[in-house]
Amino acid sequence: MLGWFHKLGSPKLFFEISTRWQNPITALSVLVIGGCAFWCLLFAPADYQQGHAVRIMYIHVPAAILAQSGYIFMALCSAVYLIWNIKLADWAAKSVAPLGASLSFLVLITGSIWGKPTWGAWWVWDARLTSTLVLLLLYLGMIALRGALEEKGTDGRACGILAIVGLVNIPIIKFSVDWWFTLHQPASFKLTEQPAMPLEMWLPLLIMVIGYYLFFFSVWIYRIRNEILIREKKTAWVKSWAGSS
User: Fold this and answer.
1) Whole-number Å distance between alpha carbons of 127 and 182
2) Which of 52, 97, 99, 146 could form a disulfide with 155 if both were Cys (CB 3.0 to 4.6 A apart)?
3) Domain residues for 157?
4) 3-state secondary structure at position 192
C-alpha cells in the first residue's frame, strides 16, 4: 500500500494518469454546472420570504463548500509533504491556493449581494462572515508566503505548517452559527436531519455542488500539470513529451 502511495507521488506517473482525467472531468463539470444553472434559474421555485433573491444560493453555497473543502485538501497535501517529503504533494498544495482564494472571494461577494436585501447591509461582522474572511486571508497568506520563499527553496515547509495551523478555522466556519449568535442562517443540510428546504430546491443545489467539485478538480489538474512541467522541464521525459506534442 505504501509502495503504491509513493509510486503515485511520481510526477511523471501522475502526469500520465491525469492526461486521461483532464478532458472528461472538464467536459462533465461544464455540462453539470451549465445544465444545473439553467434548472436553478428557470425551474427551481422562489423562496416564500426572499423571493427570487434566493437563487444566488446556487452560487454562494457550493462556493462556500468548495472553499472549505479546498483548504482541507491543501492541508492534507501539505501534511503528506511534511511527513513523507513527497514533492508532488507540495506542488498539489500550491496549485490549490489560488483556486481556494477565488472561491472564498466569490463566497464573500455573493454573500454581500444576498445579505443586502435580507439583512439590510452589505456586510456585518457576523461570526461566519468573519471566519470566511479569515479563510480568504489564509489563502492569500499562503500565496504571498510561497512567493517570498520560493527562490530560497523553503516555501514548501513554511506553507505546509501554515496550512495545517490554519485548519483550526474550518470548524469555526462550520459551527459558528451554533456556537455564537449570528445573523447567518443555520445549515440547510445535516446528516441527522431532513433538509430544511423542499426537494425542488435542495436537489439542484446538491447537483450544483457536485458540478463545483468537478470544476475545482478539473482546474486543479490543469494547474498541477503546468507546475509539473515547470519543475521537471529539464528531465528527459518532459523534453520527450514536449517534442511529441
Assistant:
1) 6
2) 146
3) 24-44+55-182+197-233
4) coil
Examine residue 101 and state whether it is found in any structural domain, yes or no. Answer: yes
Q: Which one, of 44, 24, 20, lies nearest residue 32 by Cα? A: 24
How many domains does the structure of the chain reveal? 1
136 and 109 Cβ atoms separated by less than 8 Å: no
Q: Which amino acid is at 135?
A: L
CB 129 within 8 A of CB 117: no
CA-wise closest residue to 77 among 67, 66, 63, 88: 88
Q: Give tens-digit pLDDT for 119-163.
A: 788 888 888 899 999 999 999 999 999 999 988 888 999 999 999
Round the CA-based radius of gyration of the chain to a whole number and report it: 20
| Whole-angstrom distance, CA of residue 184 vs CA of residue 111 | 10
Residue 6 neighbours by CB under 8 Å, 6+ apart: 84, 86
Place of cell 496549485: 95
Q: For 150-235, where are the alpha helices, taking DSSP H only?
A: 155-165, 169-179, 199-231
